[in-house]
Amino acid sequence: MFDKIMEAQQKAGEVKKRLDAISVTGTAEGGKITVNANANKVIQSINIDENFFADADKEELEELLVIAINKAMEQAENVSQSEMAAMTQQMFGGLGGLFGK
Prior knowledge:
By secondary structure, the protein is of the alpha+beta class. The protein has one domain (about 15-90): Ybab, Chain: A (2-Layer Sandwich). It is about 60% helix and about 20% strand. Helix 1 packs antiparallel against helix 3 (about 60-90).
């Protein structure tokens, strides 16, 4: 049992490292605002088109930043769930026979 716990912790650490290396992007206003993050939901950068920035008002900019950030976080969540599901399947996939499946 203890070995399984240690293996799970090790696999979780490996997944975290993989998620750190995966980039996701959220955009708004046709790419005028771009948010880059990793799959661990850490924002790496925000880019705002200079021309858009010069013409946008504060409220519009804030609104579009929220949209772009939420899109990036949604992508990060999807990637994270896929990676965790793959790890779980890898670790416990062979247990189906124990439950008559």
